[in-house]
Amino acid sequence: MSKWVTVWGNATSVAERRPETYARDITLRYPVKCAFAGDRVRLHFSNFCGAEDISLTRVTIAPAISDREINLKDAALVTFSGRESVTIKAGEELFSDEIDFRVKPLGKVSVSIYLKDFTLMRSAVVITGPLSKGFYSLGDCTLKSVLPLNETRTTETYYFLTGLDLLTDDKNRCVICYGDSITSQSWPDYLAGLCMDDPYNKTAVVRRAASGTRVLRQYSCITYESYGLSGKNRFAREISTVSGADTVIIQQGINDIIHPVGTDVNPFRPMSDLPSADELKDGLKYYFNIAKEHGLKVITGTLLPIKGWRTYAPFREELKNNINVWLRNCGYDCIDFDGAVRSGKDPAAFDEGCDSGDCLHPSEEGYKRMARLAFAELNK
């Protein structure tokens, strides 16, 4: 085992602001399925979007018996410069020490994080999918084998933990899926599942996605700040903290097109935020150039149908189609996600069974189609 590879990861974004933005005396537990074996781990934590320092009182990692249960016999304490607890300053990120911890092929582990003191729960991202589930429990459960039923709830919000690196075989690698809510939902998990079903698999899938994010803009108001950071405040940092990556799949841009509605409709969404096609292409070119600087192969993904979405208009359809034509012909490998899920009768709309119901996000069937197309592209 000679190579560090990130086998699981998410973006760091901004949690939705609520009156109850602080937590105290709780344990977060996140199960992670690992694509391949390894014998050492290190964890990546982020308070990049935090406005205050946070303290992780105790962190453990253990083999997972089920989503809520761990094997305490083989659990390990995660340390930071040899210490059990660590403070992460506002706006900063850090890695844990390297921990001797054996992971079996396709092994499932759980990371448990205890927050003893009042903690601003701001650096976080909401992620969904068949491989994405978290829990929080009252009290310190880092060394409890089973989370207490009456004092535990599930959560789709991932706080602070943004990556798990595994010291593994040199042949293994990871692929980054970068984007917005389309990518923070199921297709990367289905892609990971397809990879892990391959007996010769050497690929882990790492998600760097946050709902509502745009390539060119971000909101400064608390109403929409959870829609996250702009591309220039996200992309370089997020790909640079992924170990062992050789490819990035980029599928983003639809929020730049559908968000602006005019201040007469919404004071926070001026039409001046609507980019021209050239501006949006330049934003995507910025991604491509940064990715190349980091030695990553770029694969683009076309934007999905939006007909029926509440802000749909012909000029948005025209802009989306302009970007898609460019993505298919800009010189990089392109996954035609749009072609996989659009209707044959009405290409502006989702195919039957592929719409989640909001005319913007795919159904699970739609996400499975996207994953199959991405898997085929990675295995060309």
What does this molecule look like?
This protein is of the alpha+beta class and 380 residues long. Helix content is 22%, strand content 30%. It contains 8 helices and 23 strands. It has helices at 181-184, 187-197, 231-240, 254-258, 277-293, 314-329, 337-341, 364-378, and strands at 3-9, 13-14, 22-23, 26-33, 38-46, 54-56, 58-63, 76-78, 86-88, 93-95, 99-103, 108-115, 119-120, 123-126, 134-138, 152-155, 157-159, 161-168, 173-179, 203-209, 245-251, 297-301, 333-335. Strands 8-7-12-4-15-16 form a 6-stranded antiparallel sheet, with no helix packed on it. Strands 1, 5, 10, 11 and 18 form a 5-stranded antiparallel sheet that branches. A 5-stranded parallel sheet has the order 20-19-21-22-23, with helices on both faces. β22 (297-301), α6 (314-329) and β23 (333-335) form a beta-alpha-beta unit. The protein is globular.
Helix content: 10-25%
Oligomer: single chain
Basic shape: globular
What is the spatial order of strands in the main beta sheet? 8-7-12-4-15-16
Biggest sheet statistics: 6 strands, antiparallel
Mean pLDDT: 97
List the helices and strands and how they pair.
Elements: E1 3-9, E2 13-14, E3 22-23, E4 26-33, E5 38-46, E6 54-56, E7 58-63, E8 76-78, E9 86-88, E10 93-95, E11 99-103, E12 108-115, E13 119-120, E14 123-126, E15 134-138, E16 152-155, E17 157-159, E18 161-168, E19 173-179, H1 181-184, H2 187-197, E20 203-209, H3 231-240, E21 245-251, H4 254-258, H5 277-293, E22 297-301, H6 314-329, E23 333-335, H7 337-341, H8 364-378
Parallel strand pairs: 19-20, 19-21, 21-22, 22-23
Antiparallel strand pairs: 1-18, 2-14, 3-13, 4-12, 4-15, 5-10, 5-11, 5-18, 6-9, 7-8, 7-12, 14-17, 15-16
